Amino acid sequence: MKKAFMGVRLKRLREERGLTQIALARALELSPSYLNQLEKNQRPLTVPVLLKLNAVFGVNVQLFSEDDEARLITDLRELFETQSGHERVSLAEIRELAANMPAVARSLLKLARSQRANQEREEALVTRLGLDRSELQANRLMSFEEVRDFFYARHNHIAELDALAESLSQAWLIRPREAAETLAMRLEQTHGIRVVRNTARDAGAEVQRHFDPGQKILTLSPHLTNGQAAFQMATQLAFLEAGAQIDAITAQAALSSDEARRLARIGLANYFASALILPYGHFLDQAEQLRYDIELLGQAFGVEFETTCHRLSTLQRPEARGVPFFFIRVDRAGNISKRQSATAFHFSRIGGTCPLWNVYEAFAQPGRILTQLAVMPDERAYLWIARTVSRGHGGFGAPGKTFSVGLGCDLQHAERLVYSKGLDLKDKSGFTPIGAGCKVCPRAHCPQRAFPAVGSTLIVDENQSRFTPYPAS
């Protein structure tokens, strides 16, 4: 038997049996330090240790079989080589996956087989019904999801646009709270574009910006604040002053449809606009001085609460990082309309979010900033800030818009925020246990669980029902 480094498999075996390193070392008659080295792949798994595992725990030696590993490598190579358009996976990485995480490898292969089977069924259905195959292909991943994944992969920081916007902000002498006047002047003097406010009585609140390239008129909604108007003008300037950079970044994203590319260009233009009126260096300095007080930051720069939160989630310049935030905007029904992240925090792509999360409690206390110390199932803890934002410009009886905006950071950064004042950051027993969504959350006994987790076994007990198929009286 050649040297086999299989620490992850050994650790998994120990965790499945609920043993500590010391307990397993004692059972195998090994020193704890030697077992620790085995689990960290600093020492190879030897035949005597393998035989001892078999004798003590009845472990099938096939679990550590090189033949099984070779089969996995072959199947994984075939899988990754057929995935066109994805990042190349090297043979060294495939071997590492098969050797140390065979369960993950087998799960990937199972998912791939399931995906192929579903695609074959779709193709058969398309042929039977005479549908357009191009539409079916385009709908497998929605355009906005592609764009969202693109920003997530960049940690919500587009360095080239941020640097360009900051340099232009300095060159144009844009001052906080006075950006609207400067940008309107830039549009008119450099591009011959006149900025007007729509004064029509039936001007819809939905149309915040409309540009007529023929007449060179940029029409803004009359309901916009100065900060919102500045943002809309900056967005228009993004297409005029940073169009080449935006096109280059969009091309590099390798998006699958014209719709996704259009959405990406709009998202990048909005990013540029935010970086132009809230330039990186000055904004980060103010954020640190004010301990990330969102309302004071908004007042200092003349922008709204949501705009400030969004900009805070982008401050990840390598040589000058701010607190890495997760930013989200939801409505009362739980629909997520905005989600950007510079953190490892994530929510499920299937099903809703967690009802115990304070972004939903914010609707019961409109306009008030709520704080929450929350812990995820993986034991990572976060500080969350949430507040409602409202828009409504119609007359009596006209419906308005109310969203809850959430901003969160890892607990290790919490002390840098003013919102940690008075909170016990060390006693996790008082933290709210939240999850990524019921369908993927392992908290089986959560009082707010709506349905079982995907893949879990639902135990039905007539005397102790948790999930009723019909509304209880």
UniProtKB/TrEMBL annotation:
<keyword id="KW-0804">Transcription</keyword>
<keyword id="KW-0805">Transcription regulation</keyword>
<dbReference type="Pfam" id="PF09856">
    <property type="entry name" value="ScfRs"/>
</dbReference>
<dbReference type="InterPro" id="IPR026281">
    <property type="entry name" value="HTH_RamB"/>
</dbReference>
<dbReference type="InterPro" id="IPR050807">
    <property type="entry name" value="TransReg_Diox_bact_type"/>
</dbReference>
<keyword id="KW-0238">DNA-binding</keyword>
<dbReference type="GO" id="GO:0005829">
    <property type="term" value="C:cytosol"/>
</dbReference>
<dbReference type="GO" id="GO:0003677">
    <property type="term" value="F:DNA binding"/>
</dbReference>
<comment type="similarity">
    <text>Belongs to the short-chain fatty acyl-CoA assimilation regulator (ScfR) family.</text>
</comment>
<dbReference type="GO" id="GO:0003700">
    <property type="term" value="F:DNA-binding transcription factor activity"/>
</dbReference>
<dbReference type="Pfam" id="PF06114">
    <property type="entry name" value="Peptidase_M78"/>
</dbReference>
<dbReference type="InterPro" id="IPR010982">
    <property type="entry name" value="Lambda_DNA-bd_dom_sf"/>
</dbReference>
<dbReference type="InterPro" id="IPR001387">
    <property type="entry name" value="Cro/C1-type_HTH"/>
</dbReference>
<protein>
    <recommendedName>
        <fullName>HTH cro/C1-type domain-containing protein</fullName>
    </recommendedName>
</protein>
<dbReference type="InterPro" id="IPR018653">
    <property type="entry name" value="ScfR_C"/>
</dbReference>
<feature type="domain" description="HTH cro/C1-type">
    <location>
        <begin position="10"/>
        <end position="64"/>
    </location>
</feature>
<dbReference type="Pfam" id="PF01381">
    <property type="entry name" value="HTH_3"/>
</dbReference>
<dbReference type="InterPro" id="IPR010359">
    <property type="entry name" value="IrrE_HExxH"/>
</dbReference>
